[in-house]
Design goal:
The protein contains 3 helices and 8 strands; from the N terminus they run E-E-E-E-H-E-H-E-H-E-E. By secondary structure, it is of the alpha+beta class. It has one domain: uncharacterized conserved protein from methanopyrus kandleri fold like, CATH 3.30.1860.10.
């Protein structure tokens, strides 16, 4: 089973944003009705990481944009989000996480 993820990490105004997708989704396109999403190299493709490193990025980031069954499932398993927050587009899970600091 493939356990690698494609990741792009961005530091922005003191926050860390990560875009992570399941490796096998890189370069694909999903659509539903008029909605079409391209899972592009320039958005997700900075580096490849294993599951342990992806989990650490999820723990340490402020914002996460996630695409794919494995990475979204990992975020839910880590209790960073609920299944109710997941949007499925043509069977592909999408999840955005914003962590607010006090």
């Amino acid at each position: 089973m493939n356990n690698r993820f494609s990741v792009r990490k961005i530091n922005y105004q003191g926050s860390v944003m990560v875009n992570i997708c399941d490796e096998e989704l890189m370069g694909s396109k999903v659509s539903e009705g008029k909605l079409e999403i391209n899972i592009k190299q320039d958005y997700f493709g900075q580096q490849m990481v294993e599951e342990r490193e992806a989990a650490e990025l999820l723990r340490s980031c402020s914002i996460a944009n996630l695409v794919g069954e494995r990475i979204v499932g990992k975020a839910v398993q880590m209790k960073l989000a609920s299944n109710l927050s997941v949007r499925n587009i043509s069977g592909v899970p999408f999840l955005m996480i914003f962590k607010f600091q006090q």
